[in-house]
């Protein structure tokens, strides 16, 4: 696993969407531990948000929660304005917010399709568009989109999720081309099967065992392994990486 302990983000401000649980929580804590001031948003789990804040405070790390539905454009605009008002800058944006639901296309209602697309894809567009004026003015910035292996190879009974994540990968490459002249780097991370509540809630023990046996490394990934890849992409160590996707999937994409 990437050793992130030598990275230094002192003086930087990061925003992590969907930052209170699972992968987002690990990302928030990783940046905070490395000296970054972290703002994170969450939609409804106040207990998880408070627990994260308490853990950060116990270590003296700077973490600020925002209860926001990032599928709504006006809410995103207000979120970015609040972060900039509080901290005066925003150096790193991590578009991690997402929902994961299982349903066959033949049974899928418009509302279900739209809800997943708005939360998993539209939110990244809204957040990126809102932070870009500040990053362009600073001629510096990093945007990292958390996609999924589902967006690379598809996923039966998760077509809306896969479509959103595939769109997020295309958005990453397109935005990267637009903003690299302003010294803003845009990249993505595509996790495989990571042992988060969001994933494990979808499967019983037999299904989880099948996931492990399908994966060449023979286990689920951890949120911390994804967070390490994100920190690497946000650091100067990845300064020549633009429009790329880091696959953190235990070899699953090869199968």
Explain what the structure shows.
The protein is of the alpha/beta class. The chain has a single domain (about 15-245), classed as NAD(P)-binding Rossmann-like Domain (Rossmann fold, 3-Layer(aba) Sandwich), CATH 3.40.50.720. The protein is about 45% helix and about 15% strand. It has 9 helices and 7 strands; from the N terminus they run E-H-E-H-E-H-E-H-E-H-H-E-H-H-H-E. It has helices at about 20-35, 45-60, 75-85, 110-140, 150-155, 160-180, 195-200, 205-215, 225-235; strands at about 15, 35-40, 65, 90-95, 140-145, 185-190, 245-250. Strands 3-2-1-4-5-6-7 form a 7-stranded parallel sheet, with helices on both faces. Helix 1 (about 20-35) crosses helix 9 (about 225-235), helix 3 packs parallel to helix 4 (about 110-140) and helix 4 (about 110-140) packs parallel to helix 6. The chain is globular. The two termini are about 20 Å apart. The mean pLDDT is about 95.
SSE map:
Elements (H helix, E strand, L loop, with lengths): L12 E4 L5 H12 L3 E6 L3 H14 L3 E5 L5 H15 L4 E4 L14 H29 L2 E6 L3 H4 L5 H21 L4 E8 L5 H4 L4 H10 L8 H12 L10 E4 L7
Parallel strand pairs: 1-2, 1-4, 2-3, 4-5, 5-6, 6-7
The largest sheet, given as strand count, sense and whether it forms a barrel, is: 7 strands, parallel
CATH class: Alpha Beta
How many strands? 7
- Count of DSSP-assigned helices: 9
Helix coverage percent? 40-55%
Mean pLDDT rating: 95
| CATH architectural grouping | 3-Layer(aba) Sandwich
